[in-house]
Amino acid sequence: MENPRLPHYRHALETYIDAKDNTKPARIHEAFAPDAELTFSLATPNIAFPARSVGAEAIAKTLVSDFGERYSRCRTYYLCEADALAVHERTIEALPWLVVMREGAAGALRIGHGTYRWTFDANDSAPRVCALHIHIARMDVIDDPDGARLERLQDGLSYPWLAPGDLAARYGALAQEASGAFDFARDFAHPVR
């Protein structure tokens, strides 16, 4: 039997992606509790965030407004089928993600992956995120002055829920191209655990 709150959790995760990827800071307030906490752990020097932000307004500034000033054409993928989302005691542990975006000022492609840990409040009728931890395991910066690589990497991927097998097939095929332009895709073809 499906957890009756699961549709609410999925909706919150999808609202977060819409807010972040499409620079809609007001949408953060739909998904996050007013006093929610955001924390980061970074295993790469290629991106920086404050270690901790408290409150939906601060989270919107960090993950949407400030982020949107630097990055564009962002697509963040949950490497999980929506129906396979596992929740234990109001927490979604180690949900793998992939992000592909453009850093316009540098003429660069950014591709990264890691995991999310989502914790929801006890409001059974409309649960909201009370804590989000983002672990960034890897973030590569790749020259892409015209955005052509970005388009190829995003093309054909279901969004925002992406089955790991579909990612492996798509990025595996790109990595095998004779030009070698997508050799790096091999390193992002599988979810971080």
Q: For the record, what CATH class applies?
A: Alpha Beta
What proportion of the residues is helical, as a percent range?
25-40%
Strand content: 25-35%
Structural class: alpha+beta
Number of strands: 6
> Would you tell me which CATH topology applies?
Nuclear Transport Factor 2, Chain: A
- Please compute the radius of gyration using only Cα atoms: 16 Å
The succession of helices and strands, N to C, reads HHEEHEEEEHH
Query: What summary fits the major beta sheet?
Result: 6 strands, mixed
Mean pLDDT: 96
Strand order of the largest sheet: 2-1-6-5-4-3
Number of domains: 1
CATH architecture classification name: Roll
Q: State the separation between the terminal residues, measured CA to CA.
A: 26 Å
What is the general shape? globular
How many helices does DSSP assign?
A: 5
User: Low-confidence parts, pLDDT < 50 over ≥5 residues?
Assistant: none
Oligomer: single chain
Concise account of the structure shown:
The protein has 193 residues and is an alpha+beta fold.
